Design the sequence.
């Protein structure tokens, strides 16, 4: 599976991609990754990613994360701060808080938590609920 398909051409770069693979692998600690990373195992603790974090379908991340962009195909639990884009794909499952200016949840994707804008206006920083577009349309149709 090409995990970069969901990003627009402008979001892609020539940044090297580090992969952590192994469904039985479990990593715990504080990690600082200068480039992009794909995780296909269990990771816990704290992550600072200098480019793009991709949690693969078999990836399970329970950590506080700071990154530029994030794509969640697997499971994530914690507090996520992204200066760029966050995408929860159809197979993604996120529980926790997200701070970003761009959040996309694909149909079938799961998100339980709060989202806050990383904008500079005080009102933009207030946490707000996320509603699925299909639920909103259904309530308006009634």
Sequence:
């Amino acid at each position: 599976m090409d995990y970069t398909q969901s990003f627009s051409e402008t979001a892609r770069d020539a940044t090297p991609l580090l992969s952590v693979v192994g469904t039985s692998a479990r990593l715990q600690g504080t990690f600082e990754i200068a480039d992009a990373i794909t995780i296909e195992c269990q990771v816990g603790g704290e992550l600072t990613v200098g480019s793009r974090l991709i949690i693969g379908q078999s990836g399970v991340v329970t950590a506080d994360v700071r990154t530029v962009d994030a794509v969640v195909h697997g499971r994530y639990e914690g507090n996520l701060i992204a200066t760029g884009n966050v995408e929860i794909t159809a197979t993604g499952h996120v529980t926790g808080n997200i701070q970003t200016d761009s959040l996309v949840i694909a149909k079938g994707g799961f998100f339980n938590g709060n989202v806050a804008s990383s904008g500079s206006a005080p009102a933009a920083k207030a946490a707000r609920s996320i509603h699925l577009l299909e639920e909103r349309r259904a309530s308006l149709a009634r």
Remarks:
- The chain has a mean pLDDT of 81.
- Residues 3-141 form one domain.
- The radius of gyration is 15 Å.
- Residues 133-141 form the longest helix (9 residues).
